[in-house]
Amino acid sequence: MSFDNDELRDEYPDGTVRLRNPNIELMDQDILYHLALGSGSHDLVEMFGDVKFVCMGGTPKRMEQFAYTIMAEIGHKLPCGTTLQDISQFSYRYSMYKVGPVLSISHGMGIPSVGILLHEVIKLMYHAKVRDPVFFRIGTCGGIGYEGGTVVISEEAVDGALKNALELTVLGKNIQRPAKLDKRLVRELKALSDPEDPYDTVTGKTMCTYDFYEGQGRLDGAFCDFTETDKMEYLESIHKAGVVNIEMESLAFAALTHHAGIKAAVICVTLLDRLKGDQVLAPKEVLDEWQQRPTKLVCRYIKRYLQMKGRLSLDGHGSICVKSPRRFKLVQQESETYD
Ligand SMILES: O=P(O)(O)O[C@H]1O[C@H](CO)[C@@H](O)[C@H]1O
Ligand SMILES: O=c1cc[nH]c(=O)[nH]1
């Protein structure tokens, strides 16, 4: 198992995030407006320089819960009597929590929302001089041929017409950005799924649409100009083309991280099988439990990374303890044969 972004090493040997925008370094300060942060008003290196993992998901609640979960998993301690603070609370747009090397951020719904956030988080990584960050989207989706509760790791993202690129209109012209995800990261995450998990973890193509209803071929929106037969023909055709799930952010997530040279993965849980229906019918408690599933995989990955780097070790009972140099050696040996 390797955690280095080898393909990008040649381009950015020190691992820092480079912006493909010469304007930024000429600016006196850069205001990250939607994060309520700025390079002039905040010491971004001090605040974020140790970040390694950036985890994003749709809702503020999910990402707050994720922050507390990862805090317990890696044994991160807060000063006595304090709670995690939403760093971006005064943006009133996104929520952001920091737990040691992990950032947990809500991205809202859809490509425009996650796109704006990615511009600012990628710039944040640059200003903070973060090295080789790994980005995860922890989401929900509709399955194609998979029951609710299945975890899907995206191999690539495609749009509603099966194009593997994000199309943007810039200065009146259409440009395309390849929506590629890191193949090795997909394999590493898949390898962390446990045969004992009471649900399947699968990989495949993820379709990303601009809409939840008509865009995903639902018959139950406020408008619908197609028949059930049209819908089923479309869903069967994308299923045949290798699409295993549909959601609404992966295209921008894959395209913008790839353009920035950042390793990224998308892990979603299915809320229903779209070949069987349109409405999300599972009870709230079941949906809440399902949403923990992608989180578990990401926690395993982060813990494994910290173990390999000697920043975390587990005792024989799976509880977290401060590693001794000897134990670190053992962890390293185990890790080398891990993949
Ligand atoms: O659960 P999240 O991360 O919000 O993702 C999925 O859920 C939303 C639709 O309900 C869309 O944003 C879709 O991509
Ligand atoms: O069907 C679904 C479920 C969750 N999110 C989506 O975008 N689609």
From TrEMBL:
Residue ranges of every copy of the Nucleoside phosphorylase domain listed in the record: 52-303
Q: One of this protein's Pfam families, by short name?
A: PNP_UDP_1
Q: Which CDD domains match?
A: UP_hUPP-like
Question: Could you state one GO biological process linked to this protein?
Answer: nucleotide catabolic process
Residues binding substrate, per UniProt: 216, 218
One MF term in the entry's GO annotations: uridine phosphorylase activity
Query: Which InterPro entries does UniProt cross-reference here?
Result: Nucleoside_phosphorylase_d, Nucleoside_phosphorylase_sf, Uridine_phosphorylase_euk
Tell me the residue numbers annotated for binding phosphate: 93, 137-140
Looking at the UniProt record for this protein, which Gene Ontology cellular component terms does it annotate, in alphabetical order? cytosol
The family assignment reads:
Belongs to the PNP/UDP phosphorylase family.
Q: What is this protein called?
A: Uridine phosphorylase 1 isoform X2
Q: What organism does this protein naturally occur in?
A: Vanessa tameamea (Kamehameha butterfly)
Q: Which gene encodes it?
A: LOC113392938
